[in-house]
Amino acid sequence: MKSFIHNSSASPTALPGARAFTLTEVLVASSVFLLAIGAVLLGNSFGMRMLAITQPKLAAGDQVRRTMNQLISDIRSAKFVRVGNGGLTSFTNVAVPNPKQGNAIELYATADTNVFVRFFRDAADQKLKRIISGTSNATTVASAISNNIVFRAEDHTGLVLTNDQHNLVIGITLQYYELASTNTPVGAGNYYKSFALETRIAHRGR
After folding, report:
1. Which helix (H) or strand (E) holds 104?
2. What is the maximum span of the chain, computed from C-alpha positions, in angstroms?
3. What is the pTM of this model?
4. Alpha-carbon distance 143 to 130, whole Å?
5. Over the stretch 84-140, which tens digit does the pLDDT of each residue have?
């Protein structure tokens, strides 16, 4: 009969995967993990910042396109145009030989001057508004306009006219002091230093 001797001092063979990480490996793995998390958070923060910057610009651009569509449609469809100064209830055409520029413009689809469309900058709330003859309510076309001289009657070279011509060009300048869609201020000390619309719409007298 054979006898077996058990040696209690012998170390058992380690099973696969039973080996623990050393302190150095734990520190390296934790550092890599923290760096990855930090990069993800930084990228997300940068994306949110870019969204906050571009969203007001996109909204303002959309508002400018709507304003331009209205002005182009009305000016090009008019039989003749007058540039001057006015408001909700009145309009005064600039007399010759003064420069044809002011805060308002009147557009006539026919020879009847009692039928018109008027655009004017309201100094009370600094908005560009549009009113149709026979009505008492004006609609807002653009908000937060700081300049009083909005419209100019020009020739083809950009010179401001002092008399009435059939084939004149309407110069339009809108200087915004804030992005009305988001109430983002514009000017010195702000992120957006300036925001303005400068355009010319050709009118062809019929």
Report:
1. strand 104-108
2. 136
3. 0.72
4. 12
5. 999 999 999 999 899 999 999 999 999 898 999 999 999 999 999 999 999 989 999
DSSP string over 108-144:
ESSS-TTS-EEEEEETTTTEEEEEETT-S-PEEEE--
Give how far Cα 172 sits from Cα of 16, 26, 76, 184, Å: 80, 67, 14, 23
DSSP H or E run through 197: strand 196-202
Phi, psi of 184 (to 5 degrees): -80, 120
Non-local CB neighbours of 90 within 8 Å, separated by 6+ positions: none
Which whole-number Å values give the CA distances from 167 to 55, 76, 94, 155, in the listed order? 39, 11, 17, 8
First to last CA, the chain: 129
Q: Tell me the DSSP string of 1-30.
A: -------TTSPPPPPTT-PPPPHHHHHHHH
Q: Are 103 and 86 in contact (CB under 8 A)?
A: yes
Peptide bond into 97 cis (omega under 30): yes
DSSP of 141-191, one letter per residue?
EE--B--S--EEEE-TTSPBPSS--SS-EEEEEEEBSEETTTTEEBSTTSS
Q: CA angle, corner 33, sides to 27 and 39, nearest 5?
A: 135
